[in-house]
Amino acid sequence: MEQTRQKDPSVAVLLLKLIFFLALISGTVLVWFPLFILFPAVRHSPVVWNAASITGAILIDIGAAVVLWCGLAFAIIGKGTPAIIEPPRVLVARGLYRYVRNPMYLAVFAILAGESLLFWSAHLAGYAVVVVIGFNLFVRLYEEPNLKKRIGPAYVEYCRSVPRWIPKPPTKRPSDAL
């Protein structure tokens, strides 16, 4: 009996899935929920440009760039998406992932913190804290145990070399693609 090997999806298909993920999941967490929290106040009060709102806009821009970079890295290097239904097949340990294990989650937090500053909203800040707590629980209870099972010792070594949340320069370069 011939054993068939599962073929990696094409980069084009992965990029389409990434666009869908970013629009659906990231759009919901980063756009629709914040608008729901802000509405109707945002309709009646324009942004006042000051140091806090400018800092917020910068955080949003940096966070969006990091989310996009991470998503592209998952599709091109990892042969998957950020979605749990089609995770990367290859551990991405390049670029930002050499400094911190979860740059995409940190970027989402940066965007939410930026929105809180941009709109000077304590409610959005509270939402950002809830999202961060949810990310931490998800990473510790599901994502990391799952990756340890799927990838094994290479992921355990990666965890020893790269911090979960606080970026730091790599002391020992993990393999680029484990």
Q: How would you describe the overall organization of this protein?
A:
This protein is mainly α. It has a single domain, classed as Up-down Bundle (Four Helix Bundle (Hemerythrin (Met), subunit A)), CATH 1.20.120. It is 63% helix and 0% strand. It has helices spanning 11-38, 41-44, 51-76, 103-118, 122-151, 153-161.
> How many DSSP H or I helices?
6
Work out the radius of gyration.
18 Å
Residue windows where pLDDT falls under 50 for at least 5 positions: 1-5
Instruction: Give the terminus-to-terminus CA distance.
Output: 30 Å
The share of residues in helices is 55-70%
The CATH architecture: Up-down Bundle
Mean pLDDT: 85
The CATH class label is Mainly Alpha
Brief digest:
This protein is an all-alpha fold and 178 residues long.
Topology readout:
Blueprint: H1 11-38, H2 41-44, H3 51-76, H4 103-118, H5 122-151, H6 153-161
Helix pairs in contact: 1-3, 3-4, 4-5
